[in-house]
Amino acid sequence: MSDTKILPATAEITAIIPPETRHEPGKTSLHDEVLSRLRDYIVEGNLSDGARIPERELCTQFGVSRTPLREALKVLASEGLVDLLPNRGARVRTLRDEDYRELFDLMGGLEALAGRLACESISAAQYAEIEALHHQMYGFYLRRDLHEYFRCNQEIHQKIVDAAGNRALAAMYATVAGQIRRLRYAANLDGKRDRWAEAVREHEAILDALRRRAGAELSDLLFKHLRNKRSAAREGFVD
Fold first, then answer.
1. Would you put residue 213 in left (φ > 0), alpha (ψ -120 to 50) or beta?
2. Is 1.10.10.10 the CATH classification of the domain at 19-92?
């Protein structure tokens, strides 16, 4: 049973960056680079639910020692993407069917509230930034670059939350977002209903409602957007 015992994920991670992570000002640190690459590797379905994290293989692939990789795993555990096993490394967190339903509905509720609040307080500069990201995202969609599309997509959702100006909401959003990041990515892989194209059309409507500061409308659109992602995630998820 010790093999399956999960260490609790901490809300705050204090990473001790070894000398090898030192970098010049203005450049991304090795710690941040490894964290980003490892997160993308897991989110994009390279490991199945419950799979052990192959630390040696990833160290070789990323060209790093185990120290920055393990620090990155601590951060991903705090995000809810992996589980840390006592003295046995880490594994991809497994979500049950009811977890899918509950987490997506919770995220839908949080984004619906964020949309309503954002319409009350968003500045012209904040809207312009979201609009620019939308156009970038659409370009990546046309090029079928799912990696960059998803990055822009998540930035848009995050910036709507930021525009809401509610710190308690932002904190809860960050907690849930990490747990379903893999599922949101996988939702775009549902070829049966071309969920990717459907999501782009939904984002057009979301941007339009935000432009008009139509809070109630945007709230409904965001909740439905997450509901549609929930149904597509199970179809597109790579086990």
1. left
2. yes
